[in-house]
Structures are given as structure tokens and as C-alpha cells.
Amino acid sequence: MSSNKKYWKSVEELNDNSSIVETLRQNEFVEEIPTDEFLGDKETLESSSTSRRDFLKYIGFSTAAASLAACEGPVIKSIPYINQPKEIVPGVANFYATTIADGYDFASVLVKTREGRPIKIENNTDAKTNCSANARVHASILGLYDSLRVKSPMKGNDTISWDTFVSETTSKLNSLSDDKQIVFLTATTPSPSTNKLVSEFAEKYGNVKHVTYDAISESATLDAYQAKYGKRGMANYDFSKATTIVSVGADFLGDWQGGGFDSDYAKKRIPENGKMSRHIQFESNMTLSGANADKRVPLTPNQQKLALAKLHSLVVGGAVSVDLPENIAKAVQSAANEISKAGSNAVVVAGIQDVNAQTVVLEINEYLNSKAFDPKTTINTRQGSDKGVMQLVADMKAGKVGALIMNGVNPMYTLPNSTDFAEGLKKTELSVSFSMKQDETSVLSQYIAAAPHSLESWGDFELKAGHYSLMQPTIRPLFDTKQFQEVLLAWNGNSTSYRDYLKSVWTADVLNGASFNKAVQDGVFVSTSTSSVENTEAVEDSSSDDNVETPSGNAARQLAASAKAGKMQLVLYPKTGMGDGQQANNPWLQEFPDPITRTTWDNYVTVSRADAEALGLENWNVANGGLNGSRVNITVNGTTLENVPVIIQPGQAKGSVGLSFGYGRTAEGMKAEMKTGVNAYPLYHNFNSVQDVTLSKASGEHEFACVQLHNTLMGRGDIIKETSLEVFNTKDRDVWNAVPLVSLDHNPVKVTDSKVDLWDEFDRTVGHHFNLSIDLNACTGCGACVIACHAENNVPVVGKSEMRRSRDMHWLRIDRYYSSQDTFEGDNEKKENISGLGSSLSEFGEMENPADNPQVAFQPVMCQHCNHAPCETVCPVAATSHGRQGQNHMAYNRCVGTRYCANNCPYKVRRFNWFLYNQNDEFDYYMNDDLGRMVLNPDVTVRSRGVMEKCSFCIQSTQAVILKAKREGRPVAKGEFNDACACSAACGSGAMRFGDVNEEGSPISELVKDDRAYHLLEHVGVKPNVVYQTKVRNTSQA
Amino acid sequence: MKQVIYRNLTSKIFSVGFILLLTFSTSLTAQEGDPANGKSLFNTNCAACHKLDKPMTGPALRNVEARLADEQGLDREWLNKWIRNSSSLIKAGDAYAVKIFNEYNQTAMTAFPQLSDQDITDILAYTAQPKEEKPVPTTGEVKGTGSGGGVSNDLILGALVVLFGLLAMALVLVKRTLNRFAEAKGIEIPVDEQRKPIWKAFIENQFLVLVTAILFLLASGYFVYGYFMQVGVDQGYEPVQPIHYSHRIHAGDNGIDCKYCHSSARVSKTSGIPSLNVCMNCHKSISEVAPETLAEGKEYGVDYNAEIQKLYAAVGWDGTGYTGDSKPVKWIRIHNLPDFAYFNHSQHVSVAGVECQTCHGPVEEMEVMYQHAPLTMGWCINCHRETNVKVKDNGYYTKIHEELSKKYGVEQLTAAQMGGLECGKCHY
């Protein structure tokens, strides 16, 4: 049943007596208009010598002066090319296929350039692997225009030329004594040409080691795979081939094993012919995967180990005795039953950083002969070796390392033992850091080799075995930078350019006769022959000492034995917005609300409600809607982080806490406001993301910039509709997706009926009529659309304090709703099914607090482009009006800022420019410097202070599509509109589809008529042009 | 004007004399050539790379035959070979041919196998003509007569002023004398009754004051409104550009299509200020304008040749090749739409087929480019209301035009009916 559940966005809403929730329901703008800030408070007004008359005089004078000054227009210069490149036409965008690869994120993308400058990243639909860019990849374009980049090579604090750099470093490399190592410490670089260059370097200099280092390690997975299959890699999973997915602690919709699994996963989540996949998640932190799961069981990391071991014994066989609470044991048992029933259609994944756990997973999948499990096409995007890094630090401290050359890594920030590293770094004779920034590591290195951005470089990557991706520059380097490979060539005494070198390597080893230019144009190349990447890294010591080659069952037993119950456990995780933290200076990502907590500009400890109560930790909302929280000191193995803010996270497993990486940067090359949060890496002992932890409450409180209570839907129902697969398959549409009824002459009439409409219907069958369909089943909440919308529409960044005041400017927000499966009918059902004392105690306890294990639904909300829009009727100056094509237009230059429209909008999607966000020192983000403004889309107005703005359905792009068709004298092609909206183009999971409903046979025209389709707040009768597809949960046990 | 005729006459006599002289002198040694035909052949075939007196892509050709004969001892036979196929000569290892080839950046001269012996003779005859003397002194004389005319006008005016002054004085004197006579004869001149001055009457009539005040307010309101409405409207804006570029010569006299230079107007939102390489497509070979054009330029106070030199300086052209030392030209943008208005040239130029002149005015007559239209929103909208959508042969419009025209009951839809007045079509 769809309408009987209670949804809430924040725990605060569950509190009946919360005044803040009441306030938020009544007021669109939580805060009073800040007249005090502008005029000063009463005291200062009274003490002021300026009387009201004087004030008016000044106003009058300045208005007159301003209007007189405005009479003289500025002289605008226009400077044409001297020799215009023939592929560039001013005003027309060019697209280049390339790859974004920073060692953490890898994605094949299309880059949109205007007049030679990249302005947006889009998905490369030709690519088969890593084709859907995540939020960080979309945002990485801003890193190109970061004004704090290193602009030329540096020696200490002095800038030097590249010639000096190369000659000095070469002579140092040559003068090293033979017993000293030269070590390359790089991020994962699955690049055939780079590896070849490194091996050529090794031939020339001798005693060279290449250590690959992932800030957030997947070393256990790699080790387990290596032990089983003999080479280093990660098994590939295709979740579109699985009907039953069981994940134990693996956030595979996040960054687990390099990420990029969400689009395949989403394919199977849309019910088709009455079938969809079933997803069971056992986890500690509430992750994206847990949020999307049909059944989520909160477990502490220790319990996860036991559960996985148990699962292994139940599915594969073998006796492992584990001690799990009854309800968990039951859940594991039923999961095992489902797996066994699904057989090869099932797949099990685990995120536990433990070789045994990963071995167990490989064994289970192999035993099942899982169709979704592909151990041959290995994933190469994580190659780091914990042991290699540990060995390196030890070698450095022992003075064995003569030269350390780093590329794409920041160990001083990301290593748990960074002080050891710093000590070792001093003992090297040469240290070079290839970096775009003066980061924590590069400032300690002797040389900073100014590195170019991905968008300025050449490169090649074998993302998966046989699946290659090419990187090509999309802009001339903005600064005097050289990429790692160019310098390697110079060190090797090779005078060819890296591009030519790359081409020769590809022609010889990869292409197998195919065209290089074609590969560059496509950005991707799939090789039919097998992999050519052999990691040059020294692997000699990684397999020998730890004997993981165990007969079946041993791994499971060892896994179960390694789980020591007792203490509170900390689970470290990468946050969706920030990843490993290398893009911490990116304001888009800082302001990106975390999909789960909806918190921006911060990281925090997530604590379960029960633990919070035990420790006396609290979250509360203050009068202006801002969220405050207690602070804790957390101690792991002698390392203490002080004053870490706390968020009470519904669904957090009791006995576990979570903390995300990526924050707490201290580097010089960052703006002060970006140095937010706490650094979790010092707690990352032994590269294990699970640590025993002690929490103690600290004094003071923390102010969050959390948008979860902002823009609530004013307590109106019918926001999320969801049903179970069983009901969906067996019952009529009216049962689970009923159209609301309204009273007409005391008779119930469907709200869609024209008789109950206030307005006369406009004929919408002529021409285009745009609709957007959002499938709540396929939406994983990843947030790529949010950043894509930011980039396309010049949405400003407002900063933490403004975010806290509900003044976020996101045109597209992803609302996250919690609901308890145990409410109403669910409750009664559950009560009757309770058996035995143990079960009744735990389950009654669960029922007492629905926030303990909530279900989650994500709902992207943007302007709904109502056909009968309430905002349009209240605008006193007709600044917002309706177009025939279904879009609700917003003429910024006409808006006088009354904000009536926002007050009258039932969806709360209109955003007000409280300040001038561009060229304003108060908002010192990318729009405040010339370099940052290069990312602005020239087809979209940059809004000024005092005007409303909102989603436009990317009218600039729909118009561009139409114009293209007109110019070519043809009707708009099928599906051409889908990529017009930045959000639908960015959506890798296919949850968002945009198009013309009047176009026969288009996907959107089918979707709006679908049984699952409903409109948000349909009973209001505003006839939105955004249609949602009812969420169906596969709650039936297979 | 007499002088001009005289000048033409002299130069004609001069040149005819020379031609006669030349024909006689050259006919002794070679075939007769027709310099007039030679000139036209030269202009079609050779002028792209050669000039008579200045080296360009190729060497200067004045008296080339005589010079070659004198300096290198090369005869007509060699010249014929060179002109018809220079590269074969170079390949054959002819010393002078190789020398010339290297001297001019190893660019081989285009082969002209189609030129007959007579053609070559004509061309050479043309090149053998002596340089025309510039008629320097005549201009001075023209100036002299011009200033003389100015003086006489002033004199006549001055005389007239004196004359009228005298007349006025005479009248006053006559009146005074008559009055004196009357006094002497005892005739009383009737004195006018003291009447209320009109301004006083006006002030006392409150109704009139009120009406006038209202009229005054209305009038000033009209002017104030008019003043404010033209703020930011730069119709007629005619800034001085860094290079004096004459649309009159290029688009008017030479009839170059607008979109040859502003090519992006066809495909882009901007019409594009042509990049300098587009200028150089022609100006590689046009480094000087014709003397008549130069004279025209004097009327505007412009030396066109100097302006072309500015282009060369910007693009880094030394007469034979690019030096690489370029500096961009900072044109002053004339047509400025505010940032919040979106305008797309290709929509209007390619799709609607609107002539450039509709908005930009008679560009082909503009010596200095100026803003013809007000570029206000009212102006845009008005055109959208009046202009029919060009649907012919455009597959995009077929369906929508059929449906909409049925709906509105019209044969031809205007841009407004097609949705061209919606705010969001131009403001986003």
C-alpha cells in the first residue's frame, strides 16, 4: 500500500512537539528578512546621527547619480582570432571524448568545450565501462580552473623553469649511489604506456621500485584475488545479471572497488514483466547501497564477518559455528535460502577489508557459478598494495630510498603514519611531487612538478582487462605544467612527445591494427586480445608470507575467528561528495549535500540512536532551521581526534560509528573555507577501514549546514508512493497508485478530471511538450545530476553559513525520505508474527523506535513545470510565465524579487538570490575569479542579486536541439531531447528520462502513461510536467 | 574640373607617346605585344603573386624581360619555359631558376601552360611599360581655386551685412527726422493707451495658468520619458575602430557576401568578427587600393593603404610571408545585447532567411559601421509579430505549421504565433 506509511526527512519530524518543524511547515523562508543586517539593529539606529530624512536624501542622490552614470554605456572590445582554428566556431560547442582519471575516480567522458575551454563533462555513451560519471567526475572540471593551482615547477618556494627542473633532477638521479633505491610512488595508474615508461626508466637507472598507493585501500580484495587467480586485480561484477544480490558491507553503489556498478544495478531494479532484482544488504553505516536495498540489516563489522562466514557455510557448506543474535541469524539464514534458490542468478559481495572475507566471497560466487561474477575481466582501477607502502615508509626511514618520485598521491594527508613518512622524506636525496597543488606532501618535497589537470593531459588507461580508455587534452595547458609521463620521457633521454610515445605503444601493443585516431575520437577501445598491462610494481613480497591459499571453509573459519566481539567499532568510509579528499578545494563538492545525511561542508561521526542516548549525544534544530549537534572525542589505538561533530544516523548499526575520509585538509593550496571537517586518515591504521574505537562526549556544540529540514513539503502527503512487488504484480493500479479524489458537488471526482480544474485547459498536442520522468526505483541517489545541473546552469555556491540558513541554490535537490516498514499495518502484522521471548524483546524494541532501521527513498525534486502553475498567477510583474512547450519560464531581468512565487510553490523549488554571488569577495568561490568564471556556461545568464531562479528544464539545450533540427530542415530525431536536460543526460542509471510527449513512440510518451506514473502532490491539481514512477520494493522473499 | 581634364589629357598623351615609343623600340627586337591585353592577362593570372614594382610572393616584374636579358643573359625562350612550367626548369637544375626558387621560400610558381606565345608577349609588353608619374602638382592647383571661392563668398556676405546695417540706420534716422518735423509743426502724435501687458493678463487668468502648467508638465514628462527610454539604446553608435574598415568598399563596391567574412552567422549564435586569416585570403595580394579608391578615401580623411598596413602589422605579414609576430586587433563591439537576452544569428540567417540588412541597415553603404537598429525588446517583438515563419522546404515545420495554422485559421503563421513572443525563448 502506498499511502499508509509515514515518511520523514529528519528525526526531528518524528517529535510531535517540535516547534521548529511547525515553523518550517508554516514558513517558506525560515528566517526573517535580514533587515537588521542591512540597517543595523535598533540601538545602532538610535545612536546614528543619520536621520530618516538624511537617509532619504542620500538615497535620492545616489539613485540619481547611479542613473546618470548608467547613461554612458561601457565600451566593449571584441578580439577575434588571428588565425581561427577550423574546428572552432565561436558560439558552437565542440565535444571531445576523453577520460577523467585522478587515481581514485576513473570515467570515460565527453567534454563540452566552448571557444576552446571545457565547460562541462558528460557521459560518453559509446563507452561500455565506467561510462557514467559520478558527482565527483562531473565536478572535476572545476579543478581545472582552480586559481590556487601550482602554476610552474617549484623548488622549495621558488619557481623554476622546466629546463632547470629536468637538468637538476636528472643529475641528482644519476649521482645516486647504487644501493639507494629510486622509488615511484603513484596512485593507481592502469596505463600501458606509463608502465612501459617506468620500466624503461628502471632499465636506465637500475634499482627502481614502483609502489602503487591507493589512499583508500582495496588491498585485501587484490590479495584475495591474487591468491586465488594468480594475478593482481579485482573481479568484475555485472549486477544487471543478478536477480538476488547479497552485499555484506559493500557499498557497491558508492566507491566500493572503484565504483561504477550503479547503472547495471539500476537496470534490474525497474520491474519488468513483474520481475526485478532483490537486494539484501548487511552493513553498519547507512550507505547508498543500504538505502536502495529491499532488505537492510544493520550489523556491526564484527557481526558482518560472522554473518559472511555463516553465509558461506550455509551456501557452500562446511561447518562454522558463529554466535549471532537470533534475529540476525534468521536474516542470514533467509538470505542464504534466497541465494541457494536463485543459484547462478545470485551474487554475493563484501566490503570487509579482510583477505579471508574477500576469499569467502570469491568462493561463494564461484560455487554459485554466478552469472554476475566475472573473474576474468578484472577491474584495474585499484592496484594499491598496503604492504608495498608500509615497506616503502620503513625503507625511507632506514635511509634506503635515494629518490622518491610521487605522482597523484598525497601521503602526508592520507597516510595514517604520516609523521614517519615525513621523517623518511627528509632522508631522501631527491623528492619530487607531481601535483596540481601545494598540498600537504608537495610542500615538503624538494621539487613540486606542476602537473596538468586530466583535461590538459594525454593518457591511456586499461580500466578493465581489455577495456581501454584514452585521455586527450581538451585545452592548452593553462599554466606552465608538464605531466609525469613527459618528464619520465625526459629522464629516459627520450625526446619524443608523450603523445607520440603513447601512439607508438598503442600501435605496437594495444590497437592490433585498429586506427589510433578512431580510438582517440571514441575515447575508448575494446581489445579482443587479452590484457597487456602488467603492473610494474614489485609484487614479490605480497603473496608469500600470508598464506591465504586455503581449502574451502578455512577462510570462513578464519574470518569467523577474527571477529572479536566487544568494543565499539568505527567504520571509515568515503563520502559520496568527497571521495578520498583530493578534490576538497572544489566548492561544488563541498556544497553537495550528502545523499544520506543531507549535510554539506562537513564530515561527522554517525552514531546510532541507542548509542547516542547512552553517550548523551544529541542533535537538535535551532530557530533558524539549522542543525546543531554534540561533539565527541574519538580515540583509536592511541590516536585521538578531538571535537568531532556527531550526527545521529537512523539505520546506523548499534555498536558501530561511521566517519568519512576526505575532510580536514590543511594544505596551503586551499581556500580557508574549504579546510573544513576532520581528517579521518590518522585513524586508518593498517589501512583497515574498521577500527576499535572509544567515544567520549566533548564540550561545545557543532553547527551543521544540513539541508534535510529545508524546503520540506509542508507536511503534505502523497509525496512518495511505494508498494511491494507482490502488490504491484497482483493488484490493480488503483490500489497502489490511486489518483487522488476531490469533492465536486459532494461527489468524489478524480483530480485529473477537467471538471474540477480552476483553469481552462490549453491545447498541448501541438508542437513539443516536454516531460521529465523520474523512476524512484532506478534512482540510487548518487547525485551526479545535482552537479551536472550546477555546471550547466551556472548555479552559484553560497557557502556554509548561507547553506545553514536554508539559502541553498541547488536547482535540483534529492530529497531523502526515511520510512519504517513497521508502521501501521506492518506493525500489526509484525506483532502477530512475534514468536518467542527473545524475538519479541528485540522486535518490540525495534518497533518502539522506527528510526532504528528505516527504509530509505530518494526523490529528485526540481521545478515541476506545472501546466497550471501557482507561481505564475501570483507574480506581480509577470516574470514567470508558461511556454507552449510545457516549460515554466523565468525572466530574471523582469523579476523584482517579491518572492511571492516561492511562497506559492507547493514543491519549494524556487531559489532566491539573497546576495550577488558572482564577483563578490564575500562569496570567494569560483565565480569570484577570472579563472573560475571560465567554467560558466555562456548560454545561461548569471543571475544577480534579488531575483528568483529555478530549474528551466534546460531550455537553452531544448532550444538548441530544436534549432539544430530547423537548420537541418528535419523533424527532431527520436530521443534527441533526452540529453537536452543536464540531469537526464548525467543520469547513468536511467532513472531520469526527458523528452517530448507529443513525439510518438518516444520513451517519455510511454512513461507518462505507465501504471506506475504519478505526479507529486497530485491532489493540488497543478498538473506538473514532471512525472514520478512509483517505487516498488521487492519485499517478497524468494 | 578643368585641371582634371587637363591631367588626364597629359597623362594620356604621355602614355600614348610612350606606348608608341615602346612599340617602335621593342618591335625591332621582338614580336609586337599589346600592353592593354597584357594588363588584363596580368591581372587575371599574375597579380595574385606579382606586382610591377614591389616583390610580393614572387618578384617584381617591371621590365623583367629587359632585366633578365641584361643581368642574366636569359632570353625569351627561357622566360617562356619558366612561365609554362617553372618546376621542370628547377628540376633540370637551371642555375638561375634554382636561385629564384630558393630566394622565394622555395615556393614553386604556378605553371601556366595555357598561355600562348602571344599572351606572354602581351604580358611582357605590359610589364615593360614605364612607371606612371604621379601627378603631384595638379592637386595643389585644385586647392588654390577652392580657397579662392571661399574668400569671395565671405566678401559678399560681409558686404550684405554692411548694406543691411546702413539701411537700418537710415530708417531710424528717417523716423527721427519725421518726428522732429511733426514736433516743429505742432502735430500731436497720439499716444497709445496704457494697456495691461499680456503676461500680466496671463498670470491673472488662473485657468490659462493651469492649462499651461499641465501642458508644460505633460511636455516635460514626454521628454523625460523619452530621455530615459533611450538610456542604454545605442542606435547610431559609431565608434572609431582600430583599423578603418570600410564596409562600403567590401560589401558595396566589391559585392562580397556578408557571410563570406561573417561565416559563423550561418551556424552559430554569434555572427563572428572575422579572424584575420579571413582578411588575408584577399589581402595577401591586395596591399594597395586602386588610385581612384585612394582618392575616395581622402574624402573620408582615410588613407586606405595605411589601414591595410595596419592589418599587415596585426597579422605579422611582411609582404612575402608571415613573421609570426602578430598582435590581435581589439575591435570595438557595436551591437551589444544585454547578457540576459539570448539571440541566435543562425536562427535568423539560416532558418528564417532574414537579410542581414533587415537589422543591420544598409551596411554596403556604410563607410564607418554604425548601429542601425535600436536593438530594444520592442523592436524585436515587433518584427516577430509581423514576420511570417519561413516554412518552405523545412521538414521541421511541416507538422507544427499545419496544426498551428489550422488552429489559428491562417495561411501563414507569424513568428509570434509560432511562440516567438514567449519570454523563455530569449531569456534564460
UniProtKB/TrEMBL annotation, chain A:
Pfam families: Fer4_7
Residue ranges of the region described as Disordered: 531-552
UniProt domain 4Fe-4S ferredoxin-type: residue ranges: 770-800, 854-885, 886-915
InterPro entries: 4Fe4S_Fe-S-bd, TAT_var_transloc_signal_dom
Acidic residues composition bias: residue spans: 537-548
Gene3D superfamilies, sorted: 3.30.70.20, 3.40.50.740
PANTHER family hit by this protein: GLUTAMATE SYNTHASE [NADPH] SMALL CHAIN (PTHR42783), GLUTAMATE SYNTHASE [NADPH] SMALL CHAIN-RELATED (PTHR42783:SF3)
Protein name (Swiss-Prot/TrEMBL): TAT-variant-translocated molybdopterin oxidoreductase
Taxonomic source organism: Winogradskyella marincola
TrEMBL record, chain B:
Keyword Membrane in record: yes
Domain Cytochrome c residues, every copy: 33-131
Highest taxon, organism lineage: Bacteria
Signal sequence, start to end: 1-30
Family matches, as InterPro entries: Cyt_c-like_dom, Cyt_c-like_dom_sf, Cyt_c_III_dom, Multihaem_cyt_sf
Gene3D superfamilies, alphabetized: Cytochrome c-like domain (1.10.760.10), Cytochrome C3 (3.90.10.10)
Transmembrane feature ranges: 155-174, 207-228
UniProt KW keywords: Electron transport, Heme, Iron, Membrane, Metal-binding, Signal, Transmembrane, Transmembrane helix, Transport
Keyword check for Repeat: no
Descriptive protein name: Cytochrome c3 family protein
Species name: Winogradskyella marincola
